[in-house]
Amino acid sequence: MFIGCPVFAGGFPLVFAAPSRRAPYPFPDVPGCAGPSHPFTDVPDPLTRSRPSVRDEFDRENGAAVMWDEKFENTLRESLPFLAPDEELREDMSLMGAGLDSMGIVQLLSRLEDAYDVRFRDEALTLETFETPGTLWKVLTGLR
């Protein structure tokens, strides 16, 4: 039995945990392990995708991966109230977690249509489209 934990129906302990962007997980020292012992590693947030991001385009000048243009990033940032100005806009981050709500989706949709001179088709107007910056950019580039 867990001491100090409230008990849920059926005798199971009730444990509360809030996911963080990167939860440190301490690896124990394992005798006979060939590799070096690492004190912490990043464990992906269970509410976001765990697979590494795949970028489509590359910046030829410095060889860095580029996902979208500056106009897209600036337009998207205007609709994300919980995203700090100095925080990186990652392609796999949750837009809802960054503050995009239903009214924000409508405003963002209108801004993107005006900025890129496109019209989103009805089948593209799903929550999956507005799940991450990467999915939104993929749909947007498919319209151009």
From TrEMBL:
Residues 55-144 form the Carrier domain. Keywords: Phosphopantetheine, Phosphoprotein. Residues 36-56 are annotated as: Disordered. The lineage of its organism: Bacteria, Bacillati, Actinomycetota, Actinomycetes, Streptosporangiales. This is Acyl carrier protein.
